[in-house]
Amino acid sequence: MKKILLKSPAKVNLYLRIINRRPDGFHNLVTIFERINLFDSIELKAIKENKIRIYCDHKDVPTGPKNLVYKVAQKLKDDFRLSQGVEIRIVKRIPVAAGMAGGSSNAATVILGLNRLWNLRLSQAKMVAYASQIGSDVAFFLYDTSWALGTQRGEKIRPLKLSRKLWHVLVIPRIKLYAKDVYGRLKLQLTKKSDDANILLQHLKKNRLDAVSALMTNDLESTVMEIYPQLKWLKMRMEQLKCFKVLVSGSGPCVYGLVSSRTEALRIRKILNQKYSRVFVAQTF
Ligand code: ATP
Questions:
Q1: What pLDDT digit, counting tens, does each position of 148-207 carry?
Q2: CA dist., res. 50 & res. 64, Å (int)
Q3: From the CA of 190, how far away is ligand 1's center (Å)?
Q4: From 71, 92, 137, 219, the catalytic residue
């Protein structure tokens, strides 16, 4: 039977500004997505049986209908009235519920993969429409791009032609933090801040890391740190270790630092490893 092996990358948000809360409960935002070279592996295998079977040995990842990739497969099967099934094997390396969009990336990867496996001939626009039904971060991973500007819920994507690669150290403390809890506690600022995302991108193009650092921001960070004040200590520690900038990614708890080189990233990882078990070095991918 036909098999496809795929890589499913993680992201960090270099910039995340919340614009407003919408009547449907979601928030409009402006974000800069950066794809990084930390991956889950996904294997898709066509089966004759009319079933969706998911195998994943990570204890926090559901293998039934709650898995985002199950939802994708089910929707496609229903819409295309397919009677064949699929086996999906996920090897998790991206920390789960960390603010790195592992589940969303898996969902996008499976949309791309099933399009090939089942020969569905979905257009990019159709795939984006499926992605938006699954989650706000899914669409970004459908584009073959390292960088993108995300607007609306984050699902409206403008891929950016930018060859710049950055180095990062990422720490994922072993605490549970769910996006819905962070958004639920978010207090929106009354004053409307200007959108610096485009200025940041200009500096990024010219590799002015000081100027990039000065504009990197995440409106969810203060709420994340209100829930887990120990993350403030972690951020200060990473600043002391000479990261250009330290920021929570998405709705956390991943805290990542922008550093000048791989050597710097490895030096900082070694020190942070004395206290934290999940420390990664990653680069724009
Ligand atoms: P996002 O930024 O998209 O909210 P995240 O990194 O905060 O992502 P995920 O790793 O996507 O969070 O996991 C969030 C929840 O989704 C977990 O509680 C997990 O049980 C569930 N989940 C469903 N499908 C998957 C999947 N394929 N991989 C990881 N988690 C999944």
A1: 999 999 999 999 999 999 999 999 999 988 889 999 999 887 655 667 999 999 999 999
A2: 15
A3: 31
A4: 137
| Cα gap 225→80, rounded to integer Å | 45
Q: Is 232 a catalytic residue?
A: no
pLDDT digits (tens, 9 = 90+) for 239-278: 999 999 999 999 999 999 999 999 999 999 999 999 999 9
SS3 content of the chain, % helix, strand, coil (to 5): 35, 30, 40
Indicate if ligand 1 lies below 6 Å from the C-beta of 96. Answer: yes
DSSP annotation of 142: G
Torsion of CA 173, 176, 178, 183, to 10 degrees: -70
Distance CA 11, CA 142 (A): 13
Stretch (H or E) spanning 42: strand 27-47
Residue bearing tokens 């079977």: 53
Output the CA–CA distances (angstroms, integers) from residue 13 to 33, 65, 116, in the order listed.
Answer: 5, 28, 29
Ligand 1 atom nearest 135 alpha carbon? 3
| Cα-Cα-Cα-Cα dihedral sign, residues 278, 279, 280, 284 | positive
Rounded distance between C-alpha atoms, residue 274 and residue 70, angstroms: 38
Rounded Cα–Cα distance for residues 51 and 57 (Å): 19
Q: Which of 40, 55, 43 is nearest to 10 (CA)?
A: 40
Beta bridge partners of 28: 20
Known catalytic residue at 11: yes
Residue with tokens 């180095």: 167
Closest CA to 140 of 107, 170, 116: 107
> What's the pTM value of the predicted model, to 2 decimals?
0.96
